[in-house]
Amino acid sequence: VVLMTTFAAVYFHHFRSAEINSHIGGLVAALAGVILANAYRIGSKHTVTKVWWLVAISAFVARLFLGLDALIIILAAGGGALALSWWSARRSRA
Amino acid sequence: MTVDLLHLFLLSVFISLVTFGGGSQALFYEYGVVGNHWITRSDLSAVLAWGYATPGPAVFTTATFIGYHVGGVVGAVIGTVGIFIMPFLSSLLAARYLTNLLRNPHAEYFVRGVGLAAAGLVAATAFGVVQYKHMALWQLAIGLGSLIVSLRWKVNPLFILLVGGIVGLLCSL
Asked: Rounded to whole angstroms, how far apart are CA atoms A39 and A57?
């Protein structure tokens, strides 16, 4: 917390300027690549079969191209998976 | 400012509750940058880069950083407490109740759905942070390069960010 607060103080008081922002395009692009790799790792942790990736792809499209709220997307995906679980449990019982 | 701090505290608690196994940066982007305009895209990039460079999950550093911008040192503490308190309490409860709950097959499905949605949202955040519609070709090359290196080899993200930053700096001069 101390390290981060110090960084925030230094950043906001000394390094936050349009001139610096115009030179960090490479850093931001590299960061985007690292974040995408993280997204893949998060997804891999939760997929059992490849078809589950459709959930991640749908969330991606819903957020980026349709502009849906992140909370709605998360709740819809969780609720949908829960409904699927109940439905498949009922089917296997029947 | 008090209202903002309360808002930040509740938001941090909420984010810590719904991001199972990742995805917090997507929600901080959604509510910290796009929704409340507490910080800019560039600020988020800076804090995420710093988060990767320092020990511990980036989610804590992001909450502290936004908290500092909203309310100084007090804000930093409030943001950190907000993001930390629920995982702390849930780890106390885990031994007794949560382990059994998470073994429930229905709960497993719920967590899987939420986790995959988080993965999609994190990917969308990457595109949002980089402002993909206005990307230069060299930025695209750096982004793809860092994606491939991150996936293929176990390279410290800090090294990737440093190389990307230096290459970008040379390209922008």
From this structure: 11
CB contact, 8 Å: A21 with chain B? yes
Indicate yes or no: CB of B64 within 8 angstroms of CB of A38.
Answer: no
Kindly report, residue by residue over A25-73, the tens digit of the pLDDT.
888 888 889 889 988 988 898 888 888 899 999 999 998 888 888 888 9
Cβ–Cβ gap B117/A76 under 8 Å: yes
Residue A13, Cα to own-chain centre: how many angstroms? 29
* Predicted complex ipTM: 0.85
DSSP annotation of A16: -
Give the closest-approach CA distance of B18 to chain A in angstroms.
8
Q: Which residue of A has its CA nearest to B51?
A: A4
Contact A12 B171 (CB under 8 A): no
Mutate to test the interface with B, among A13, A28, A48, A75 (most CBs of B within 10 A): A28
Eight-class DSSP state of A61: H
Count Cα neighbours of A17 within 13 Å in the Cβ-side half-sphere. 6
What's the confidence (pLDDT) of residue A54? 93
